[in-house]
Amino acid sequence: MAATMDNKNKRTMVAVVGVVIGMIGLSYASVPLYDWFCRVTGYGGTTQVAAEESQQVLDREIKVRFDASTARGLEWKFEPVQREVTLKVGENAVSFYRATNLSDRPIVGTATFNVTPQKSGPYFHKIDCFCFVEQRLEPGESIDMPVAYFVDPEIDQDPNQEEVKTITLSYTFFEMESDEDEEDQLAALETAGGDSD
Questions:
Q1: What pLDDT does residue 150 have?
Q2: CA distances (Å), 115 to each of 96, 122, 168, 172, 186, in order?
Q3: Cys-Cys crosslink for 91: which of 87, 121, 142, 176, Cβ 3.0 to 4.6 Å?
Q4: 180, containing H or E segment
């Protein structure tokens, strides 16, 4: 009887340890898995990345509106050059956003993006975008940044997209910690460590 209890306890312990290890593994994998899921499904308004331009243009027209914001503390002015365009579904287009560094120091920024309505995310394809790379602006510098895109003609086959007449493309810029900032912090730590000797 005691041996049976010991075996049950061991099995329970192994199961609990396995669950804990599995949960730790999932917590590390959750961010990349969620990102992959959003890109594949367009969930949350995540747009798609196209390898090439659209080859088919439909008669259906759709408006694309542009929205821009910056995270708190980022000393940039960031805005779309055009507020909206009307284009045909499948038509390849290029639009621009303008960023200006209002600070007295170089700033590296990165942009996050989405579209609304969110259900249109799988049909909004970017061929190239400033959001694919970090942007560095010197003090007072302005730059016009392009985004090349099209609305996938497949949107016309989806009955849930029939009422979609306007898609809004939104970007938010965040400041990235630059290598120089990291070097300054390391130098300050080393100096502080040296002073304490």
A1: 96
A2: 16, 10, 5, 12, 39
A3: 87
A4: helix 179-195
